[in-house]
Design a protein that fits this description.
The protein contains four helices and no strands. It is mainly alpha-helical and 67 residues long. 0% of the residues are buried. The structure holds zinc ion.
C-alpha cells in the first residue's frame, strides 16, 4: 500500500509510482554476467565439446595405434 493506491498528490513522477514502473529494469539488472554464470557457461560448453569428442576417442586411438 502506497500513496499511488489512492489519491496521489505527487504526480506521475511520484517515487512510489516510479518504483512500481521499474520492476522490468530491476529484473534485467538482477542477472549480471557474474563470475558464477560465466563459469557455468564455460563448463556447459566444455561438457558439450566432451560429449561430441569422447565417442571419437576410440577411433582416434585406432588410427594412432595401428601400424
Ligand atoms: Zn504516489
Amino acid at each position: 500500500m502506497n500513496c499511488c493506491d489512492y489519491d496521489c498528490i505527487q504526480g506521475r513522477d511520484c517515487p512510489a509510482r516510479v518504483a512500481k514502473a521499474k520492476p522490468v529494469m530491476l529484473a534485467a539488472e538482477a542477472l549480471p554476467p557474474s563470475t558464477w554464470r560465466l563459469s557455468l557457461r564455460v563448463w556447459t560448453w566444455w561438457m558439450l565439446v566432451a560429449a561430441v569428442a569422447v565417442p571419437y576417442i576410440p577411433v582416434l586411438a585406432y588410427f594412432a595405434l595401428r601400424e
